[in-house]
Specification:
Number of helices: 6
Distance between the termini: 54 Å
CATH class: Mainly Alpha
Helix content: over 70%
CATH topology: Substrate Binding Domain Of Dnak, Chain:A, Domain 2
Order of helices and strands: HHHHHH
């Protein structure tokens, strides 16, 4: 057990720096979708950034619902959870590529159309009973539409 006399270790410093770097990157991606900064208004990718971030947010709510179902022993939403997990990671990367105007954005958007389509299809199976799935399917559709405009 480390006491206050032991001081800060290299591991403590590296863990803190890593956490701060992660927070800075994810905050920047999240803020791009939430705030209307002047530089975002001028970027041609603002619609994609917003759609991707909205998709991630809706997906997180859907995943949380799936986890509650799993806790109760109900695995009927396993496919939904899996597709939302993949789509969320893809949309998070899509938002970053759009923010940085990456040369890979157009190609990546084509892949996101596929993953968001799979997620939308899985969520549509539950949308009449689960509002989180309905919201996720809707967010996927908007992300697909935004991606089609740039791909």
């Amino acid at each position: 057990m480390k006491t206050s006399q032991d001081g800060i270790t290299r591991r403590d410093v590296l863990a803190g720096v890593g956490a701060l770097a992660f927070a800075a990157v994810t905050k920047g991606v999240a803020e791009a979708g939430e705030h209307d900064h002047m530089h975002m208004a001028a970027t041609p990718n603002a619609e994609v950034v917003k759609a991707a971030n909205d998709c991630v947010d809706a997906g997180q709510a859907c995943i949380a619902h799936c986890i509650e179902m799993f806790k109760s022993g109900d695995n009927s939403m396993a496919e939904c959870n899996e597709t939302v997990q993949v789509s969320g990671k893809m949309c998070n990367t899509l938002a970053f590529l759009a923010l940085t105007n990456s040369k890979h954005l157009k190609d990546f958007a084509k892949i996101c159309i596929e993953t968001c389509s799979e997620c939308e299809a899985a969520c549509k199976k539950h949308e009449k009973m689960v509002s989180q799935c309905a919201d996720c399917a809707k967010a996927c559709r908007k992300c697909i539409e935004a991606c089609k405009k740039i791909s």
